[in-house]
Amino acid sequence: MASQKPEPIVSIVGLEKIYQGGFHALKSVDLDIHRGEIFALLGPNGAGKTTLIGIVCGLVRATGGTVIADGHDIARDYRSARAKIGLVPQELATDMFETVWHTVNFSRGLFGKPRDPVLIERILRDLSLWDKRHSKIAGLSGGMKRRVLIAKALSHEPTILFLDEPTAGVDVELRRDMWAMVRRLRDNGVTIILTTHYIEEAEEMADRIGVIDGGKIILIDEKHALMERLGRTRVTVGLATPLTALPADFADEGMALTDNGTSLTLTLTGEDDSATGAADLIKRLVAAGLDFRSVETTRSSLEDIFVDLVEKQA
Question: What's the pLDDT score for residue 1?
Answer without folding.
Answer: 43
